[in-house]
Amino acid sequence: MKTMLIAIDDSKNAMKAVEYVATQCRGTQDLRIGLVYVLPNLPAIFWDEGHILSEDEKKERKRVVDKWLADRRTRMEPVFQKAADILKGAGILSQQIQTKSISDSTDVAESILEEPGTGAIRPSLSGAAAFPRESACSSEVLPTRSSSMGPVSRSR
Questions:
Q1: Which whole-number Å values give the CA distances from 153 to 47, 141, 146, in the listed order?
Q2: Most CB atoms within 10 A, among 15, 28, 42, 65?
Q3: Which residue(s) pair with 100 in the sheet?
Q4: Side-by-side strand order, sheet with 125-126
Q5: What b/e sequence results for 83-110 when a residue is b if at least 16 CB atoms lie within 10 Å of its CB, and e otherwise?
Q6: How does pLDDT run across 72-114, given as a tens digit for each residue?
Q7: According to CATH, what is the number of the domain 2-43+77-135?
Q8: Which residues is 99 bridged to in the sheet?
């Protein structure tokens, strides 16, 4: 089974990418789709105090950061749901759709490109807009080579 990675956020363009995949892959049964959201890096207020934190301050900081991360993940749930609904509307089954939030990133683009190597979601295809229309859901594997989702090279 092939896996397609779609990096999403709460923008209209992210949903357009999901709609594109839904249109191109309508009813495809041998495809798994990984929806990935990379949380932006923690705001400086959460990690820069200008001094070494005491144990109590570290515990409080961890509580605040955990709450911030949980809030960001909660805000993404409706986005994941909307994307999944679009895909299901095109005949893609719920069990074919995975979601993942990445929260330990300092570089969003790099995190997206590294995701296949983590084993959680292993795509054979990424950045669908860079592919010819007929190739998006075919059996041919077309990996991207750069973070700009520029030219695609075929690998064998």
A1: 40, 10, 10
A2: 28
A3: 36
A4: 97-102, 31-38, 2-7, 125-126
A5: bbebbeebebeeebbbbeebbebeebee
A6: 888 889 999 999 999 999 999 999 999 988 877 777 778 787 7
A7: 3.40.50.620
A8: 35
Closest CA to 141 of 121, 119, 126: 126
Minimal CA–CA distance to 128: which of 87, 93, 100, 88?
87
Query: At 16, which helix (H) or strand (E)?
Result: helix 12-24
Task: Write down how long the chain is.
Answer: 156
**Residues in contact with 105: Cβ distance below 8 Å, sequence separation at least 6, in sequence order:** 38, 39, 40, 41, 111
* Structure-token pair, residue 99: 């979601």
Residue with tokens 């993942």: 100
Q: Are 34 and 5 in contact (CB under 8 A)?
A: yes
Domain ranges of the chain: 2-43+77-135
Tokens 């929260």 identify what position?
103
Distance from C-alpha of 95 to C-alpha of 25, rounded to nearest angstrom: 15
Specify the pLDDT at position 21. Answer: 93
